[in-house]
Amino acid sequence: MARHVSPDDIRTRFSHAMSDMYRAEVPQYGTLLKLVADINAQTLYHRTPEANALANRGGSEMARIEIERHGAIRLGTPEELHTMRRVFAVMGMFPVSYYDLAPAGMPVHATAFRPVDDEALAHNPFRVFTSLLRLELIEDDSLRHRAADILERRQIFTDGLLALLDKSDLDGGLDDRDATAFVIEALETFRWHSHATVDAETYHAFHQAHRLIADVVCFRGPHINHLTPRTLDIDATQQAMPEWGITPKATIEGPPQRDCPILLRQTSFKALEEPIIFPADNGDESGEEAGTHTARFGEIEQRGAALTRRGRKRYDQLLAASREVTHGLESDAQQRALAEAFHDFPDDEATLRREGLAWFEYQVEEGASVTDSQHLPSERGALAEALIERNLIQARPIIYEDFLPVSAAGIFRSNLGDGSAQHYAATDSQADFEAALGVAVKDEFALYEKRSERSLTACLETLGLTST
Ligand code: OOG
Ligand code: NI
Prior knowledge:
Elements: E1 4-5, H1 7-25, H2 27-45, H3 49-56, H4 59-67, E2 69-75, H5 78-90, E3 94-100, E4 108-114, H6 118-123, E5 127-133, H7 141-153, H8 159-171, E6 174-175, H9 176-190, H10 200-209, H11 211-217, E7 226-229, H12 234-240, E8 264-269, E9 273-278, E10 289-294, E11 298-303, H13 309-326, H14 331-341, H15 349-354, E12 360-364, H16 380-389, E13 393-397, H17 405-416, H18 430-437, H19 444-463
Parallel strand pairs: 2-5
Antiparallel strand pairs: 1-6, 2-7, 3-4, 4-5, 8-11, 9-10, 12-13
Bound molecules: 2-oxoadipic acid (OOG) and nickel (II) ion.
Nickel (II) ion binds near residues 72, 228, 299 and 411.
């Protein structure tokens, strides 16, 4: 029997193929990649705290920065989401977290497909933020039915891909030839189509209801709308963007600049206005109509420590409170006001760890051994701190691998226009989303906790210690 290609390898092949396709489709993405590579090289050269922390993590963490990307797609139906889950599973990507964007005025809810194991993340942490349109939020009955009809009739996956999904399920994997075919077929789903599937009038009706609806409903597939490289210094990258002919949005989403970066900071450049073609009613080429559509953009991100539930709660509270002082501010003034609002959020690793605000993972220092274990506390947290104090183990923050709904809404808005936000009644729809998906989403906090606990357990085993 032919050997199966590992899901990690299929994911890496796919993310490279996707990056090549997007670079050809949106040349500014190629420019952004060069800019980020440039800034990252400078940051590493100058050995900033961020660069040092990264270097301490060893080769795999450095290697992953070069290829690290996330993308986003928007799906139209529960069936599309269900099949998309199977597609990502072949690449070792699983749904983590539920993001409800309705409170922020976007008629979608979402998850992020990403690798979850430490080794898989180190191999290639490629993630795709995947939204599902919530048709039930379209108020106009006839428009809602029309959208449902159109979506019902489209097939966003090729026959070849569907056959390979079945084969992979049946055989428990894909061999080299099938893996190559899989990447080619899967790419088709993410490709841009300049021909709309509806006439101009229908497009404008959806556009009027919400720009997002037009983007999801009027095309053959869920074109990838951005791919985001990871920068080691988002402030420097944002500042350099205009020199490279890229106009960034006015504010960086997420937490302010800090000595210990937390969570995720993001900024984007505005979506391009791209030519599209509307078909004629009678299908006659001469009756086609020209138009434009804005959907595809560029984004950069800087990642910091994953926060515990407690830390996250504090972050959410401070961010919400900061709105009052940052409202209407842009660029440096906005960042200064934000930093002020976050003044009381501890900004050193020891405090973040001791107060249980951020997740850490542990590693035994080289050559460490315990000689007087009877003087060590037995309670796990206290024991970890005592071992760090004695330089027997080292703690380092776990990188945040997920997304922030408030930031995501800000990214959506900057591309769809501020006028795009509408008010949708808050309903708890996670159960509907998971029913469509066919599985429950994984809890991000549980994943970080497991990683932290496992690393500490391994340290204690190495040192011959036990804890309570
Ligand atoms: C997704 C926007 C969210 C992020 O990085 O938070 C996102 C979209 O516009 O479809 O990608
Ligand atoms: Ni994004």
